[in-house]
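Problem 12. The chain below contains 141 residues. Write out its predicted structure in token notation.
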Amino acid sequence: MSGHQITAKPQPRVNEVSEPFWTGVNEGRIRLQRCLNESCGRVIFYPRVCCPFCHGSELEWTDAAGDGKVISHTTIHRAHHDGFNGELPYVFAAVELAEGVIFYGQLRGAPTDGTSLVGSKVRAEFSEHGPDRKIVVFRPA
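Solution.
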């Protein structure tokens, strides 16, 4: 055994509300909720039990295209958890998906020198994150 120990990354808390989202991610899909109220119809992220806009309780799951644009980002030089130390430095971005929701994740393959990436088009990918768990990451499109 080497002196290098790999630290497990923190895992998401999956519950009955978020389980369809996480199952989709493990299958390579971003699943979002859509409000079925005729006067609303908004797309929702993160998973909820009712629409945060009209408070309607009828929601359906729909697949997102996976395309978006960077609306904000930062370069991480010091990880918040030891499990990410091997990836430093990396870009962490707020991405507006084509469906209109804001999603946060690593932007892999992006410059870490402080170059502005705001407005850049990105595409979702799915990355191994732990035993039987994937997460959404992005790459420049």
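Discussion. DSSP finds one helix and eight strands in the chain. Students who got a different answer should revisit the alignment rule from Section 12.3.
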